[in-house]
Amino acid sequence: MLDLAKIKLIAQSYSPQELFAALVWQRRFNEFDGEEVITDLAKNSSLWASFMFTKPIFAPDENGLSFGGVIDTLLAMANYRPMPETSILRFVAYPADTLYILAENQDTIVSQLLDLGKKWRADSVDITDGTNEDYTWRLKRRLMARLEAGVSDQEMQRDRDAVVMSYWWD
Question: Where on the tree of life does the source sit, at the highest rank (predicted)?
Answer without folding.
Answer: Bacteria
